Amino acid sequence: MPKQSVKTAKAKSMHDDFELPAQIDFKKTKLIGFGLEALDHHIASKTSARTVTIAGDVAKDFATDEEINEALRLVQKMRLIGKSASRKKSA
Length: 91
What we know:
It is built from three helices and no strands. It has helices spanning 35-46, 56-59, 65-90.
């Protein structure tokens, strides 16, 4: 006598009844891939860290990357001070 196949009931997940909202426009979505490597690549692409090239005549005045960063931070603070001073004058 041939064996009879028995189908077992699959456990129901809370995600089985989930439906995507109609507002999602899949034409605007971007596939980032699958797995941890794809996730790491996606996160790295969203960070604000950038590599910039310093002109040779400027770079010769600095011995280390940290000296360049310190000088740029000072310039950044000077810009912020200038912006806040101009706001106070106009107020």
